[in-house]
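chain below, 145 aa
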Amino acid sequence: MKNSLREELVNHSAKKLFDIVIDIESYPEYIPWCKKMVINERKKNEIYADMYVQYKFILAQKFGSYVKFDVNKLMIETRYIEGPLKDLKTNWIFEEINNKKSKIIFDVNFEFKNYLHQKLAETFYPLIENKMINSFKERADDLLD
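prediction:
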């Protein structure tokens, strides 16, 4: 299983950044490989959703997930339900430094069912992670500046 832990300082409030990340319906607007989000069920602090991901010449694939979040603690946990992976877990923590600066802690663990796909993903994961984190940061800059 591949693990990555990343910390980023961002010039926006933790609560506003949390709000952007938990707004999963908007992902297709700014995350390049996210083609569609389907919310299957929403409860007070939980979301069951399907993200349809499409890379350049590969057919879109569905990634079903269970998202649990805590607005007071500014935490988001995602657990994988179905799709091409064997397992996927992500954790977001948003820490307020001051009202205009925050630290985001992003922890991800993933494993593909297919060994070749796993090795390819591990090779390209730093690029994918950078693109994803930068997409969130650019979204925050666009919405909050």
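Residues 2-144 form a domain with the Alpha-D-Glucose-1,6-Bisphosphate; Chain A, domain 4 fold (CATH 3.30.530.20). Strands lie at 2-10, 34-42, 46-53, 61-70, 75-82, 85-98, 101-112.
thats it, cya
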